[in-house]
Amino acid sequence: MSKIKFHPLEPLRFPLINRFYKSYYPAGKAKRDEIIWIGENTSGIICCVRFKQFESYQLLTGMLVHPELRSCGIAKQLITATNEQLIHTPCFCFAFNHLEKLYQDSGFTVIADNELPEPLASRIQRYRLSGKELIAMRYQH
């Protein structure tokens, strides 16, 4: 596998990220007001993650690694590459149960729902009611 370059998505390349989501994670859809980081190699975009901005915190969301490259450590490399984004503003995420260790190994800790800002506490409850098994986490640097 060729070397991966991690960086924020250039605005002109925004349509490419939604094409990437549509191919491998149709429920994911980037929005222009999000900060998006990507990893790419000579074959193109192979991973991405979005940061939804709120007034005094952010939500890491929509992390996606190309299916053929999963379990190779790319997700952890992507999170590590976004360190300047993570430490800039308090960061939360909703991890699927099976990804808890990945996020813990990347600096996130499990928190109780009542430790989330109210808009996120309501959001995680809605997601769980729709059948998603999620864990609330916060980045600790």
UniProtKB/TrEMBL annotation:
* InterPro entries the UniProt entry points to: Acyl_CoA_acyltransferase, GNAT_dom
Question: Which source organism?
Answer: Photobacterium lipolyticum
On the tree of life, the source organism's domain of life is: Bacteria
- GO MF annotation: an example: acyltransferase activity, transferring groups other than amino-acyl groups
Tell me which residues make up the N-acetyltransferase domain. 4-141
**The keyword Transferase is annotated on this UniProt entry:** yes
As recorded in UniProt, coiled-coil segments are none
* Record bears the keyword Transferase: yes
Q: Where is the signal peptide?
A: none
**According to its UniProt record, what is one Pfam family this protein matches?**
Acetyltransf_7
Which named protein is this? GNAT family N-acetyltransferase
Keywords for this protein: Transferase
